[in-house]
Amino acid sequence: MKQFTSVNDIADINQLVEAAIALKNDPYSDQQLGKNKTLGLVFLNPSLRTRLSTQKAALNLGMNVMVMNMDKEGWALETQDGMVMNGSTVEHIREAAAVMGQYCDILGLRSFPKLKDREEDYSEDFFNKFIKYCGVPVVSLESATRHPLQSLADLVTIRETWKGAAKPKVVLAWAPHVKALPQAVPNSFAEWMCKAQQEGLVDFTIAHPAGFELNEDFTPGAAITHNLEEALTGADYVYVKNWSSYQDYGKVLPFPEGWMLTHEHLKVSNDAKVMHCLPVRRDLELSSEVLDGPHSLVIHEAGNRLWAAQAVLKDLLQSLS
Amino acid sequence: MKQFTSVNDIADINQLVEAAIALKNDPYSDQQLGKNKTLGLVFLNPSLRTRLSTQKAALNLGMNVMVMNMDKEGWALETQDGMVMNGSTVEHIREAAAVMGQYCDILGLRSFPKLKDREEDYSEDFFNKFIKYCGVPVVSLESATRHPLQSLADLVTIRETWKGAAKPKVVLAWAPHVKALPQAVPNSFAEWMCKAQQEGLVDFTIAHPAGFELNEDFTPGAAITHNLEEALTGADYVYVKNWSSYQDYGKVLPFPEGWMLTHEHLKVSNDAKVMHCLPVRRDLELSSEVLDGPHSLVIHEAGNRLWAAQAVLKDLLQSLS
Amino acid sequence: MKQFTSVNDIADINQLVEAAIALKNDPYSDQQLGKNKTLGLVFLNPSLRTRLSTQKAALNLGMNVMVMNMDKEGWALETQDGMVMNGSTVEHIREAAAVMGQYCDILGLRSFPKLKDREEDYSEDFFNKFIKYCGVPVVSLESATRHPLQSLADLVTIRETWKGAAKPKVVLAWAPHVKALPQAVPNSFAEWMCKAQQEGLVDFTIAHPAGFELNEDFTPGAAITHNLEEALTGADYVYVKNWSSYQDYGKVLPFPEGWMLTHEHLKVSNDAKVMHCLPVRRDLELSSEVLDGPHSLVIHEAGNRLWAAQAVLKDLLQSLS
Fold first, then answer.
1. CA-to-CA distance for A8 and C148, rounded, in angstroms?
2. pTM above the 0.90 mark?
3. Where do the domains of chain C lie, and which CATH numbers do they carry?
């Protein structure tokens, strides 16, 4: 693997999932691989799980880690080309990325969408320029449109917990929120589940109210419905997540009643396990009864972020040498 | 030891003091103990001494350290249960703590009181919930009502420097300030000194103006006076510290003249050593002449924060395995 | 070497340059030297290159690194003596520096000038007090008037790339900007190049518009001109950098046309290489065509920050023991 920014960077998702599970059982055997290698983690936005799990994953591999909160500790970055930099930005991404590549063997980058201009966000201009100019392998710590470390951890969690004979029915279920959230997590989850479905690993359904359709590039082969109950019927896993409208980009749309998942909803399911990437707003996105009850996998799932990151970094380290 | 949040978590304070002094003389012998163990330091408030000394202590023990400035790098946390999270908080402490426990073997936490609602602060609700949900041993880096790493370092400093035949007279002396400060340091110091007094190690007196009485739970057996000169008479150690009123909680009360310690005050003492937890406001809380003179132990005392933290972490690591 | 704050701290600049180049070819051989030694990096201002390169340099040497963003994570510092601290500052530099010296074997410090009071900035009061009170060797990560790690990396870059028989002509060329920038980088570059000129390593010229004269203490022996074309004629290296007026201290002065370096300017040069310390404002300070073209050394130069820092830290570590 030369970079990790979407499911398309991976030759064999199944093999990567197995690698993550193997690392969970034997975390410290690769410390020679990372010796004297440095991971730089560049954050333009807040991070808890991603920050800590990726750092820990690198330490498990014997790497050094340097964290850079670019928004707070560094200089305001310019991304546009061909303009006179006489405003508030102090450094161009061309230089900033190239310089970070001088000191790091692998770079992780988090940069959220602005949710103002859909074209700009979906072009992944910032992310792509960073990759282009830094000159070293890049791991996405969440970009404007994707969060692949989360999706890998999600797939690991499903693999670990699924004991059924047939393949599980996985449902991505939209949830309410008060703010306009990015589509990165649902895009990425959909993209990974569609790939897993192609490989015969899962059956994948997406449920959301009208107006919350995801970009079709991320949902090839997914069953899509506006009827939550229909989606949940026979479900083995429910992945709960809010996202804002792709059509009315950046807007907070009114939404119908009944989309916050409760125990009542789960009655039609196959005793479904419930997942969420966190952070979650309790009793707005997802009911406390579900979060605190036996259906919830959310902490287990967050724990798997570590092994997902470690599998990805190990693969990238192997490609370096 | 399973956690370190107050003197009550410790079986034998004397033994812990001796352990800290032993580590000072031989800091790097336990690096196998901490190998592949991770300490997460979670700050909701500023920190200089605690941040650096605890980090260094963990590194001396061979541990990995991850620092999380929760207030700046993470998500705004909710602590109340049973409410719809449709406001400004993004993540509940139930999830945040549990997730951090997934990546760390030991967690340190700093969280100051809000000084608005005494009941709330003294319930240590935030701290207790963090401990309950994170699932790993927790070290207090200062909570709403206590700062035990400071108190342990203070006791180490007294033990190291006391050369007398009898036990020393230790005085906690209130000092002026312009702001309403927490009671955490004096509460904790009092709690530790009362315990040390019970064990025959010190004689302990508290001096403060009327209206600045500490919560009695922290001062069992202490001599308490409003007369500073009386307290300082024959004193061997004076621990200078401001705190705001426990009775008129959160208020900045007017205070009488004469409480800022000078050389003049020390004349009645037994050539007393002067201590302060730092940061200290010069010539408001404590005179420059004392801070810069031969009576002051404040830098030595701050240096001992390292060995206090290392003794505590070593004990917790031993309990892990 | 006992500290690294200016060229005057170095016995032999040539030897230090050679040491940096040797480390570039063999970065990991000194890890026993730094074992159980701790570098504290204290930032009062933003930093990208300095933060990451110095951290990585210390890790290459086997050291532990602790980063302290004093402006964000710590307490507001007082530097004046003899005043009652009843305002907004919480801790005096006397205590803060001394405490950091308790936990670290070497300290790095970044503190920019305020550009309000020239006397104050040029007294390096803050920096000198920090050095005085911390009690351990200090590396400047950029002070009010100097940035010696940058200058060492610059000299390393010239040494590595110069293939001519005679000594190279090096030009420090003033560049436009919209803000009042410190003189630290040009002061330091001038100071180092004047020293290198004395030792017969380079010919050194400074070009700037009238009104932008540097403090003469930093420019002994330099040729100084207001004519950019004259300076660039026959130049082998052009070091582009804005600085604000030393005479009209802290002001943004109007400046003449024609000082932003383009390919056109370079025609009179000896196919000059172009350097800049970064961050650079594109097409304001320096044209994109130069930055993106074959003349530019800026990324290579930034990469050398690592080896400069490592050479300095190695020397300081050797002096410790």
1. 45
2. yes
3. 7-146+305-320 (3.40.50.1370), 150-302 (3.40.50.1370)
